[in-house]
């Protein structure tokens, strides 16, 4: 579907994006993550043919350039903030771009906008404008949707609704590229992750692989933690002591359970440990930041 190959972007003499390459397939939900100023919005604008670049971008095998936007007819987008006509109603804003009024009405109802859709957009709250921007991006059943901070200004109910809509569209084959600082929300929808740092893509991975622990650990509490540590040492099973618990390799759990049972020690708590997505991403970016500092 979307193929980005070695794009480079400069603002004057300053390099903003360096050798960025990635692909997005139908139904894939890609999270684009990075610090402020990392280049996320620049990449999104470039995919929409709004920024000069070197390299190549194609959508369904049709090239996208600064002058040729024909391939973007089946791409929806919300970048930075909704671009709407304030003195038109929300309905008329949508009608300007709708190819199917019946489909547009269904989208209005699905987004819960019916009560205010005929009011002028200038009177909308931030959340209402955001919903209208998302509706514009989803209009006409696009094959690819690009969303920059889509949850901005939305309450919890609207956030859950947008999340459901993204899943519904993806199930029908629509691909998404989404940038958001709300990683907890992004984690609930994305199937792949791209992490960008100082204009370079440093991670491009399916979520199933990204969240997989290389050496999964478990936290264990027992009725006699002192005797537990003695038994682990005698059996030469590696562990780390953590307050009133031990951290052990997940692969050793069966062996440990038998050892404890044989010595009449009972398990009070046993659960996997590991970094949250946010902690993992922060650690990756910190490591990269350290590497960049060492280079400079």
TrEMBL record:
Record carries keyword ATP-binding: yes
GO molecular function: ATP binding; ATP hydrolysis activity
PROSITE patterns: ABC_TRANSPORTER_1, ABC_TRANSPORTER_2
Chain ranges of the ABC transporter domain: 2-223
Keywords: ATP-binding, Nucleotide-binding, Transport
Entries under InterPro entries matching the protein: AAA+_ATPase, ABC_transporter-like_ATP-bd, ABC_transporter-like_CS, P-loop_NTPase
Annotated family: Belongs to the ABC transporter superfamily.
Name of the protein this chain belongs to: ABC transporter
Natural source organism: Lactobacillus crispatus
